[in-house]
């Protein structure tokens, strides 16, 4: 089973969210389907089910490997590099 090789490099505390929604969607007049929080910097972006996929775009631009769901009642994390749940 494949494992994430990036979780050990995360900051010791989770960063504060930089917003409460996907600001890129807001600026584009789009609506995010679900939100994701970058665990390196706190960027909040929309998921890949959203039309503009800003969480993935944030990873491509920054290389920040792990995000977590930013949806109430959910707690899973995803590593973009290793393509696995963390």
If you average the pLDDT, what whole number results? 95
The strand line-up of the biggest sheet is: 2-1-3-4-5
Gross morphology is: globular
Please describe the biggest sheet, giving its number of strands, its sense, and whether it closes into a barrel. Answer: 5 strands, antiparallel
Termini separation: 12 Å
Describe the structure.
With 86 residues, this protein is of the alpha+beta class. The protein is built from two helices and five strands, in the order αββαβββ. The chain has a five-stranded antiparallel β-sheet. β1 and β2 form a beta hairpin.
Report a brief summary of the structure.
With 86 residues, the protein is of the alpha+beta class.
What key phrases describe this protein's structure?
single chain; 86 residues; alpha+beta; 5-stranded antiparallel sheet
Write the layout of secondary structure elements.
Blueprint: H1 23-28, E1 35-38, E2 44-46, H2 54-62, E3 66-69, E4 77-79, E5 84-85
Antiparallel strand pairs: 1-2, 1-3, 3-4, 4-5
């Amino acid at each position: 089973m494949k494992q994430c090789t990036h979780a050990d490099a995360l900051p010791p505390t989770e960063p504060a969210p930089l917003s409460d929604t996907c600001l890129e969607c807001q600026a584009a007049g789009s609506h995010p389907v679900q939100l994701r929080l970058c665990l390196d910097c706190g960027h909040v972006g929309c998921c890949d089910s959203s039309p503009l996929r800003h969480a993935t775009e944030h990873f491509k631009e920054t290389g920040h490997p792990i995000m977590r769901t930013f949806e109430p009642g959910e707690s899973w994390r995803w590593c973009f590099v290793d393509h696995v749940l963390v």
